[in-house]
From TrEMBL:
The chain crosses the membrane at residues 25-43, 82-101, 108-124, 130-148, 155-173, 179-210, 222-241, 288-308, 315-331, 337-355, 367-386. This is Dolichyl-phosphate-mannose-protein mannosyltransferase. Keywords: Cell membrane, Glycosyltransferase, Membrane, Transferase, Transmembrane, Transmembrane helix. It comes from the Bacteria. InterPro entries: LipidA_mod_glycosyltrf_83, RgtA/B/C-like.
Amino acid sequence: MTVLELVKPASPAPVEAKPKDRTDFYLSVGLTTVVLALLAWNITGFPTASDDEGTYLAQAWAVQHGKGLAHYTYWYDHPPLAWIQLAAGSWLPGLIAPGLLAVAAGRIAMLPLQAAGLLLVYVIGRRVGFPRWAAALGLLTYGLSPLFLTMGRQIYLDSFAVVWILAALALALSPSKHLWHFAAAGAAAAVGVLSKETILVILPAVLVALWQNTARSSTRPWAYGAFASGLVLVGCFYPLYALLRGELFPGEGHVSLLGAVQFQLGSRSGSGSIFEAGSGANALLHSWLYYDSVLLIAGSVATVAGLALRRLRPVTVAGAILILVALRPGGYLPAMYVVQVLPFFALAIAGVLAWALSRTRGLVKPVAIGLAVLLAAFVVAPRWYVGDRRALTADDNAAYVETARYLRAQPPSTVVVDDVLWLDCVNAGYPEDRVIWFYKLDLDAEVAARLPGGWRDVDYVVSSPALRQDPGTLPTVTTLLRNSAVIESFGSGDGVIEIRKVVKEPS
């Protein structure tokens, strides 16, 4: 052995890398799987299919088949990116189970999107500093709410928008603070706005998240620049599309983006105030509270309280903005608006509870935990059980399923239907120009041109709750109902669906 070998220091023992902690992954995925199973259970039976769902699904069909952005004239009522995303996957469930009602197949295609939303709620909870149990509570509070198990099943543009804005928040709160994360946050926010324009009001919450997650002098200006770049580069495609088609500005003989915006902001009739008894907004609020008063009331209180907590502000600012928008008098409040509210209220509840428990000491802490558990067991659980049980057992679409089956068995004819059944008829082989969405009979000149004889050119009208909901406001529909006879009916009560043969006057 040489002298050098004697004095050479021994090689350090290899350091074993610590195994990566996968607890968050397994916990979030496990809880999401449970909620998703409940969401999928009876998704075809509850809730009742709505005309809005059928419309978005038919627009996705138009994209799939190269028919443009809608199955009728696209008039820029909403940005199209949500149903473009829906078009990517809505064909698969119907291919596997062709007997499904078209809307039911579309709902199944929404499940991956809802899974992403649930996971993002957990991720955001952890990134704003929640302990694991609080992040899990936020996910479960969101996912087990009867409102989510009802409206989360439906095909709504708001579901796409809220998932993308949650993704923007998660990226803005990225612990690694890479510049591309902030640019991706801007792009995700733009995709959210192009999925449903009303999500635009939550952008200040993403800006708050960027502010809190960056250093004042070094990364903050670059972060905001990257965010703005992603937002503008993706967001500009929509007005650019309208400009290239000559449909950006209002004019004679064509639809326009700015004309649609003007209608939405100024011409559309409002829902009244939520505080005004008998108003549309008040009735809507009561319908939401009927499904889940716990999340809405506790979430509102937690949102206001959470504004005082710095780490919760990205979440509570979003919730507070949504509350203020709902409270404005005279504005239009759609039924699906609550979809945007739910994840932020759930996170606010979990965050405020986690903060409160972290401030308790000694004997107070187990007492507080015990009270919270008792409250959950004897107040929340019984209320949610009723709503969730109905979501898992009710069959509210039996009449639609029977009607679709009947129409598939008939030879093609000129038929007026609601948009729930439009795609079922087209899939059954009816020429798409002879299946007419009732709403367009009086409101689309292109449809009127197809029917030179007016209502007499229609063979059948399918009278559904959606078609009957505004009696007298659509003259041609009213005339069809008056000059037709029932030949088959399905369901009962207010939910009855009638197949009516048009009785044409002798020429």
